[in-house]
Amino acid sequence: MQTSVNSSLKPKVQPFLGISAKSSNAKVSKPKPQTAMESKKLRYTLQRTAQSLLYDRNALKQHRVCSCHRNVASDGVSLWRKTDGSNARFGNLISCGSVWSCPVCASKITESRREDMQKAQTAWILDGGSCLLMTLTFPHAADMPLAELLEKFSKALDHYKNSRTYKRIFGTATALVAQNARKNKPMKNVVEGEFQRLGTVRSMEVSHGENGWHPHVHEVLFMGNDALLSSTRAKDELTQQWVESLLKSGLGSREQLSDMYQYAFDIRGGDYVSDYINKFGREPVKLNGWSIAHEVTKSNSKLGKQGRQIGKEFHYTPFQLLGFSTDGDEVAAALFKEFSKCFEGKRMNYWTNGLKEWFSINETEDEDLAIESDSPEEPKEELVARIDTFQWQNVLKTNTRAELLIATAKGIDAVNEFLQTLATRPKTHSGLFLDRARPDINRFFH
Question: Is residue 274 helix, strand or coil?
């Protein structure tokens, strides 16, 4: 059973040593904050590892990440930079939109989802409401396959949400009732809960530690107020119901009841962003910490090698496992492949029907959020150059996409200098890709 994280504890950096890893007390210096270009370089490195891990020579159809930021949408690849040189990006490339398996696409998708979450939270708090964070987890062991855990966890969640206890305490979401009313399809069986609830946003997070896979759900509750936090009776009933739902779904045992009652259910108030909004009437222009909005959108995509301490155990995100795989850890590589297979096609966040409409948030697919457009994304962005498909193929053969972006951030002279060195660079990859403008050039990629 995993304990809840004490926010006062400073996470320690732990090396991943496979499924037999033990936590140590070795002190490692805190890593320095990365620049935008350093972060982008890391994401491209990790993406290339994911492409190699998920590529199947015997398959007719490859995992979509294998072609991400390799295939060209039309003639040439455009190079864009911020005018202050702080960042750069490609244009005219095809993105896969996989928030689970692609570090490059996940960065854009999760940031957009965080902005949606922050917009809703800000509007609700300014309207006098409250945002609570409910976390649900369960006991697990190192030998449990992730697919089996997720199947049982899903059954437990369905049983929990459909229970009389949950419906009596939370009732029917106001946003759902309002949506049906707008459609002239009023609901017949509306349950008025003990605590007013506008709706919820649910996110699944998965990490890996000494005791194997650790799936858990974070759910933001848009409540009328904080009254639920002071109701010991209601929280105890919700905890008991969650434990019963776990047992019915085959997660946990009667021998683990004490730990399950203590750790499987947690509900707490908002974060510092909520305090800021209440004080200043708006959300902070720049977020300097980890907020509720981050917790439900970005947890799975954390990079670096800094494990998160949960109780006495250190946990690593899927992209951290991908990083260890890049360094040659075969156990981490197998774990990332297992994760990718289990989560392919799943949604990142689940909003109560009508909740996005309540806050005027548009429904946008992950694939659309990940698109690298061939036009300025902001006023302070400029087109540096456009390279042809032969130059792009050499970039892929030398695995130097990140280096090209670093040169792009510096300007056209740096780009030209970089391109001149391509002929002498060692060719480490095949460099195949699909050119949408000339679909017969190449059929595949790797």
Answer: helix
